[in-house]
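thread from #wetlab-drylab

HS: before we spend reagent money on co-crystallization trials with adenosine-5'-triphosphate, can we at least see a predicted complex? here's what I'd submit
DV: go for it
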Amino acid sequence: MKKLQAIRGMNDLLPDDSGQWQYLEDVLKTILQQYGYREIRFPIVESTELFKRSIGEVTDIVEKEMYTFEDRNGDSLTLRPEGTASCVRACEQHGLLYNQTQRLWYTGPMFRHERPQKGRYRQFHQLGVEVFGMAGPDIDAEVLLLSARILRDLGVADQVTLQLNSLGSSEARARYKDALVTFLNGHKESLDDDSLRRLDSNPLRILDSKNPETQALLDGAPVLLDYLDEDSKTHFEQLQTMLRDAGVSFEVNPRLVRGLDYYGKTAFEWVTDALGAQGTVCAGGRYDGLVEQLGGKPTPAIGFGIGLERLLLLLQATGQMPEGLDRHIQVYLVAVGEVQSRALTLAEQLRDALPGLPLLTHCGGGSFKSQMKKADRSGAELALILGEEEMANGQLTLKYLREEQPQQTLNVDDVIQLLQERWPEYCL
Ligand code: ATP
Ligand code: MG
């Protein structure tokens, strides 16, 4: 029979590595709490329509990356390729945007049918932050400070730079688009197929072409920042002042555009050189038009997404992943003879007395010797031995696995007291 395998580009997370993810998630949650952001969860599957209408028909995501399928009712559904659209949908559906502001976050898997490589997968994970109801630029600065703190607290601040741009109002973008298209039409012979296709459909995307020839050509092209409307210009200047005041360094990159149609005004990316081609760790921006576009009242909004695999890779590549994240077993309860039932209740008693103690109860029988071997391999500091004799006397034998100390046979209460004195931190 053919061996069953995971889908290409969709990774298993094995127990040896899950400690790293938990560490990352703990740091993120602590920071989000510091800023008063609240968690929202929404389904992994939505109607295809939602993503088409929000992300834009002529984007990489909608054109070629979505996992779209028909369900049994014949409805077209899509595995979410990103979270913003679903977040807006959920907020609208439940009236969260009515006369109020929201600072929200979510995390979970996203799905895009891309060519899998280091830092690029078909199922990957994002932390998303979305803020509704504030026009900025103060909230833009807060969101950027939050992202900066995440990178700082994880120890990778010196590995990343913040790139910043303003995409202006939709009218300004339209004016700029015309100028860019006019310019590029005069240099069609120098454009690759991808850019030629985008020239008609989504010319702004040509600005972030990875092709060096295209980039060289763009040196002579009109610059988006020169086309900004007054409102966007002021917004952008004020944002920059706030960031400077807060000591956040950034580079203005006038060619920074985003791969989704709904962005305007502030756009940003945190990029690193440490991960090769997949250098964008965090990306986001302002999307004041999206809520209305999806049927709500006009609502200013800003957000970002962090690619958690890339963040993890960055911590690993730069030696910032703490050691010893695997919370290992401290006590192994050895159960020899007809004592299984008592072993299980004893273990419960120990967990009541020391709720934080990682304790493994031996299950499955076996000789004393083989159980002690397992106790040693578990990494435990102590073995508690329950044999028939101990059980009859209401006692336990305590054996030190990593220290030169004689073993002791004690009453259960005394064992509990000894453990509590040894590990007060597990008693809370
Ligand atoms: P890229 O230019 O690398 O394709 P993107 O512009 O498509 O990125 P966004 O849609 O802005 O990415 O998603 C936000 C973040 O999610 C990215 O900056 C990246 O860290 C992460 N990300 C996006 N696609 C993938 C993927 N296929 N695998 C892993 N992480 C991803
Ligand atoms: Mg992409």
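DV: The mean pLDDT is 94.
HS: ok that's useful, forwarding to the group
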